[in-house]
Design a protein that fits this description.
single chain, 174 residues, alpha+beta, NADH Oxidase, four-stranded antiparallel beta sheet, 37% helix, binds flavin mononucleotide
Length: 174
Amino acid sequence: MSMNETIQTISTRRSYREFTDKPVSTENLNLILQAGTFAPSAMNRQSAEIIVIKNETKREVLRALGMKLFDGRDPFYGAKEIILVAALKDSKCPIQDGSCVLQNMFLAAESLGIGSCWINCVEDIFQSPEGLELKHSLGISDELIIVGTCILGYPKKYPEYPKKRKAQYIRFVK
Ligand SMILES: Cc1cc2nc3c(=O)[nH]c(=O)nc-3n(C[C@H](O)[C@H](O)[C@H](O)COP(=O)(O)O)c2cc1C
């Protein structure tokens, strides 16, 4: 198989759930965020928004609300960088647009040696009254749906890779 760096990164990307205390530099964070903005979007509507939670208090409130939903388990795995990807509910393809943004960020992170993981619970967190208050305090309007969340950090341990791919993932129809 002919590999280049991009395909190598795609093939070795994993979800990381244990992080060291080393912070992600602003420079690397910005590279990852920029990569997100270069995602394709339906009709180039760019319906997604990337919300980087830099306010420690709000980040910890989000974590605490998440822990309530998960019987005390931190659904963000202690990550210090929590990035929400939201999209306009009534745009053409909000989930698809937001998912492309997220995947671009995961791959950019991997290419920089930074671990990432998709976290799916934030829309659920925002359903409670405290969650809704937090959502609004983050400047996220009711026209937006949270497509997914990207956590970032330096991996404490590297999971084995890649996970076995199912048989018949690809089918050629002639
Ligand atoms: C839509 C979606 C939602 C996910 N939600 C979560 C989540 O809430 N928490 C989590 O730990 N991982 C979540 N993941 C990560 C998957 O568990 C992971 O991608 C899968 O097990 C394959 O492992 P890999 O990413 O290391 O290849 C999610 C992935 C996707 C695509």
